[in-house]
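Reproducibility note. Readers wishing to regenerate the assembly model reported in the main text can use the exact inputs given here. Chain order matters: entities are listed in the order in which they were concatenated for prediction.
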Amino acid sequence: MNAIDGTDRHVRDSDNSPPPSLLTVILDTNPHAWALLSDTLPLSKAVANLLVFINAHLSFNHANQVAVIASHIQRAQWLYPTPHPPRSSSSPEENGTSTPTPPSATKYHRFAIIERELQDNLSRVISQTTAADLTSSTTTQIAGALSIALSHISRATQLSSPNDSSGISLDSTGPTLSNPTDTPTDPADGTPRARRSPLTSRILIVSVSGDLAAQYIPVMNSIFAAQRQRVPLDVLKLAGDTVFLQQAADATGGVYIAPSSPSARAGLLQYLMMGFLPDARARAALVMPGGGEVDFRAACFCHRRVVDVGFVCSVCLSIFCEPLEEGECLTCGTRLSLGAAVAAKPVVVPRPKKKKKRKVGDITGTSTPMSAGTPGP
Amino acid sequence: MDGEYIQDVSDDDGVEVASRSGNNGAAGGAYGARARGRTRAKERWESGIQADSIAFGEGPDGNLAESLEAEEQARKRARLRQDNKPVQRGIIRHVVLILDLSEAMLEKDMRPNRYIVTINHAQAYVREFFEQNPISQMCVMAMHDGLCIRLSDLSGNPADHIAAIQGIRYPKSARQAAREPKGSPSLQNALEMARAALYHAPSHSTREVIIVLGALLSNDPGDIHKTIKSCVNDRLRVAIIGMGARLRICQEICAKTNAGDDSVYGVCQDEKNLRELLMATTTPPVIRQTAPALPSSEPTPNAASLLMMGFPSRVTESTPSLCACHNNLTRGGYMCSRCQVKVCSLPRACPSCGMTLILSTHLARSYHHLFPLQSWVEVSWKRARELGSTECQACMTHFPPVPEPQEPDAMQEGTDKSTGTDTANGAPKPVKQRPRAEGASESSRYECRSCHCHFCIDCDVYCHTVLHNCPGCLSNPNTAPTDAETNPEVVAEMAAGLENGVNGGEPMDME
Amino acid sequence: MVKALKGVLVQCDPSIKAILLKIDADSGNEYIIEDLDEETLFVKESKVASLKEKLKVTLRETVRENTDSDSE
Amino acid sequence: MNASSDTMTANPQALEVLQGFPGTKLEQLYRQPSTALAVFRRMLPHLAKTIVMAMLYMPNPFLASDLDAWIRPDAVAEKEQALLVLTSLHIMSTSLQAQGPRAYILGKAFAKSLRQALTGSGEHKSFGVPCRPPGNDVVDVKTLDDHARRQWEDILYYMVGSTTVGVEGQSHISDATKSLLELGNFVDKRGRITQTGFTFLLQEVNAQVWSLLIVYLNRAPELLKMDSVDILSFIFMLGSLELGQGYSTANLSSTQKQMLDDLGDFGIIYRPSLKTPIFYPTRLATTLTSDASALHSSAAAPTPTFDTGLAGGSGAASKGYIIVETNYRLYAYTESMLQISVLALFTRLTMLFPNMVTGRLTKTSVQRAIAQGITADQIISYLAAHAHPQMLKSTPVLPPTVVDQIRLWQIEGDRMTTTSGYMMIEFATEAEYRDTVEYAETVGLLVWKSDAKRCFFVNRIEQIRSFMSNRRAARA
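Running the prediction on these inputs yields the following structure tokens for the assembly.
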């Protein structure tokens, strides 16, 4: 009967369902900062709220994944999935079959697993913190946590792609990592690989500590990597002051919220559920908080002054607020011994510095090339 | 064209091209396979198709998978094995990209042809280049019918160059015609043009020329050796990516302008390889203290200098206003810190006062060149057993389990007998039956020498090409950068708080 | 006052529409409520099924499908 | 009808059933946290989920003006869609306070249950009471998969068997199932497959299960005196259970105990013996509330899931088995008669080998399928979903020429499209007409309009009606 009626045949596009999404939470577990917050928002309460948030994320879609990393004072540590015991990170379902304890009747099984692992790992992290660790540092390993999170995301993205995963990361400008800045369609950018259900990922940083100057470069590197992978870095700033993370959220299109007053912090869960829960797909339809002014001015390396106009060393890109009197770059101009550490300074083989501008007349050899036309063959 | 070179050259440096003045017809005759007596292992691309089957070693179980995997890993790592020592690099670069638009580009050894492939890759290259070198300048030229044409002026805006490259095939204005490949290229003209374009480049920056050359000849109006000499004097550094075969003259250009190092001359074997070679040049070049090949007594004027730069703040406006750079109406942009002119994107030179305007993040983007991540090393089964690593430190991918320790000689011989027992035990595939592809680790683990963490191949590639951080070092108490000082006792508090339970009750009373 | 009429909107080629109009005229206007434009008709909901049936019969009689031979 | 197909993640059939339920019944249904979670996950459009989550822990009603400010102007259509589904499912309603601005609140029962689901609190036992089998003879996942596959394929065989030679005699399904298939109009009185049946066959397994369960849900209350709320909440509970875990039947209602037999016949659950008070959900059950994309994406994941798990042992390659070439030739690496007969629905099969069949997609074969009520999109999605791993490496998966041609073959037969709905006429003023048309267009209801005649056609009227009364109220 419907042979001549095409009505029902044109309707749906089944690819329309939202892609699975991976949420990586970086929880700053800096004991110093949480101690200060303990009156208004103890860590346990924050973690309870975070668990509700994670469960909410998981209930959006069966295929949604979650990962939690603690950014502790001296190290970054996986909280979920638990590292070491042989288990695959991307298939939480498998856990169910191997868990010794039976699921509870009042808890969705997946939620229960995450809750238990997260709490176990978190208390292990806390209990393993020695007084010596505490005295050695006051801030948190956000760069390490970000690096781990990004590596994990890059791997998860590869796994979720139905294509042969081995070929993808071969060139760094492949589709996963292609440049985020402009030009939506990009015929030149390698071979386009359509995915049936690409994984969209995002990172939420729950931060309570301030910036760590020594981590500037690794944090920046992480931000750029996130930018290339189009992973938004959402930041929930409960305490402390960080320019890095604000820049991170801005550069990657993430959400930056800083509830500073104690009463605002009490509403942590509402911030999470409304501000950070929407995934990339939902964000397209929502007015997300953000924008605002981001401080992009640079701090000079010599006096930590924030400058509008600065002087940059052409070799090491150090920024100075005024022309240097000795004419030697404070960062690289001095003779440096070759450190064995990773972040060794660039080796500059010493050579007498000449602040001499190259003059046109100095050119030896050939005459000035003509910039007019080229001679014909 | 087919007759112009001989596929099966056993000659070591490939074909030599004589670049003679005014010799239009020199092309064909100049080529010849001259046996030199020296022998050299054939390149893969020289040996033709039938040799491909040899390249894939068959595993003892008759399976190609493992050897393919090793090849793959080696290939992935190939680019990583370069920059690991912190050396001074020319972060501020002035680059002229020269594309070959001569007849040779119509060759169909890449699909659909070299011309289109090159244009596509050049666009990706420009984007990647500015991603890696945000404060550098570029200029695009093309060798077409004996001439060298300037496609875009020296500037730091990738969009200009991409538009110019696209304009080769699809011209923006009706006046221009699409430039189909035609005639022969002239390296001399190209170098002279590039030299002119780079003449005003400041002393603290590099002057680089990157040539994609499809042809096997250069049809020059004069003595190219003189041009090479003047390029050397002008501190130009030329890198050439050839197609089809190596050319003596290209090798000479590269060697002379790079202080004797001709590694910047590469011949691509296929499209993938072309991309790899191009992308390799996005890494800023190493600064040499003095160029030994420099004949003149003048020291290289590689003087580092202090540059004045503006760090403008972003503004948002309620009403749109014209930007100084494109005369477009925009709502917001950046105000030049010196003259308060509005520009719409950074980095760029202020159109009014000429000061370089930049974000501090742009500078930060280049830091990884200055502080590169050190290479990770392959891990032997022995070492893997020592550390007992089971999964990648960063992404938690499982490593193949460490096989049972075997007698050392059995390991060496890698007999089929041991294989049998191994698989029977459910243990992993046999170890070391044949030399692994270079760069691939037999245990699929890669170790960071500072933190001794093990990573998988994908994280190795990812961390070295994209992230530039070592997840292990940064998350390890001994290697992570830290500040000092503290107050104790807080841990106890925290632990107490946790024991109270991160219970599953209603997290917060909101009703 | 705005009114809402329940019914079925039929969209088709002008050629098909002509056939539909003919069916309607032959049966004494029991199908179509309104002829909206070249490609659109507004039809009584209860009659859609039988209209389709009639169209199918008409098409089978008039249009000859050129069947492909399916040969390799 | 159209609206439900727009809802991105929702399962259209199940959604329609739920929307047909009266508010009190839904309220009753939502008391189970597992149901609330399943409805949330499976039935709601993406934006609706976001809105629900934002409101879940909100102390006060969500002001309509705040909601409008939160959602981008260009996403109005999605917003309206989301609100419509939410209200029709009685999850959200407009605040009852007479004065004051318009605001939304979540239904009490739903909000409470969803919060309980997220936090795992409360005394309900809606996520199943786990239980260990006596004597420790644990049922492994493979047994469950085998059981599910066997039972489900039997049903499919039964349906296909009526058309294809060589498949009969393989199916042994219970009389109850047979009559259910008949009631659902999948087969006719004589056991021959109908058009609905063909459509059914080409669906994904998950959609098939739902189709069957919905027939069950619609018919069982009358025939077997079962409570539909009980049935539904049991179905939703099954979706939240854990594969490989045994559950006790002790705390099930009588209706639900009755269901166990039927669900066992379908292969949705497994009971080692009828005496022990224990049942195991199979993969068919545990993936009930996952949506299609979840099933797809998991194909790449290391764990065998749904499709893969089910197809696993039936002799065919565990994932895809079909290769389609640009010349319309089709090679299917399968031994399963079921798969072969499904292919035969729209392919001209030419050769049968021990482990594969070859055939050709021809105009006649495809149009024959279309005449039987199968759509081009169903064929295409079937081919794509079962494409051989080798095919998956290319993009798009299927050769575009073939995909286009299948569509063209279908369009050739399409002579008209019909849309049932309402014609809006006799607008008093141009302004009124214009506003209403614009509204209809933004919410995606507009099908046709004529500015000259000042009338337009929409496929649903509820929203238009409320818009017009709001508009009138605003004017007054």
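We highlight two features of this model. The longest strand of chain D covers residues 416-425. The radius of gyration of chain D is 25 Å.
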